[in-house]
Amino acid sequence: MMYVEKQIVLKRTSQENTMQTLKKFIKYYKPYKAVFFIDLLCATIISAIDLAFPQLLRTLTKTLFAGVPGKIISALIPITIGLLVAYIIQTACRYYVTYAGHMMGARMERDMRKELFDQYEKLSFSYYDQNNSGQMMSKLVSDLFDISELAHHGPENLFISLIKIIGSFIFLFMINRMLAVLVLMLVFSYGQNKKMQETFMDNRRKIGDINSSLQDTLAGIRVVQSFANERIEQEKFNRSNENFLISKDANYRCMGSFMSGNAFFQGMMYLVTLVFGGFLIAHGRMEASDLAMYALYIGIFISPIQILVELTEMMQKGLSGFRRFLEVV
Is 77 in contact with 139 (CB distance < 8 Å)? Predict the structure, then answer.
């Protein structure tokens, strides 16, 4: 019982620490809030256009395309112009998201690097005696790159994915309520995602052990060679290297389960759509246009799930780098 309570307290503390880190991270968006909100607006437009096409196709199939040929041909020009304008707008939005969004992240990276460098110049000699210069350079360069990627892709990918998942789910539910497979897929993805988070964190700890072992050995290489302790150091390094491989094995097993499981549920969704949709059409309870739209929305529903998985890994890398940044500043 005490163990369970301790785990709950540790989990709550971890969540609180993550929230505090996010609050400190968000303040760096302040000088670029106009760019940030325009970026989210463009992301909304991109998602809305993707969601609108299957609905437009369904409406045209039921109304215009069921009419006389002359009416269809005369309506094709305004439909073409309308869709062309929509996709030009979507292209402009994608350009803004790709260029301005990345530049926002790069400017935030520049601001943090300047702040970190200024802090390095204020630190005492004892700090430099106790800390490795390679680690300090890593915090100044590679860690901040991970942070800039998170700053741009994090909110944007999360926003687009949520709009597409919620929007497609609503449209699928409006067409027909055969959503059991979708719900199962969401439950499966959530469970596997939690496992993947644990294995990613374990990977980072294990690679940290390798770096620590390597740094100790190389820093004291004269002492190691003087006392002929090369074999002892090799055993220490091999042990940490092997532990990292074991952690990677668990990570890739989890990733394999996630990818193959999602692919299976994706196939099941199309299978259920085809079989159950054909059954409903045969009994006059569903139209062929609805079935076509259902299949299109399944594709829109599935793609953001993979984006969210990649976002989870990006968040872990970015936030762990930001925590290392906060340790100094």
Answer: no
pTM, two decimals, is 0.69
- For residue 138, what pLDDT is reported? 66
- Res. 205 pLDDT band, cuts 50 70 90: low
Q: Residues, the chain, total?
A: 329
Residue 37 is given by DSSP the state H
Contact criterion met (CB below 8 Å) for 148 and 105? yes
Contact 202, 300 (CB under 8 A): no
DSSP string, 67-103: S-HHHHHHHHHHHHHHHHHHHHHHHHHHHHHHHHHHH
Q: How far apart are CA 310 and CA 66, in angstroms?
A: 43
Q: What angle do CA 253, 256, 257 make, to 5 degrees?
A: 85
284 φ/ψ sector (left φ>0, alpha ψ -120 to 50, else beta):
left
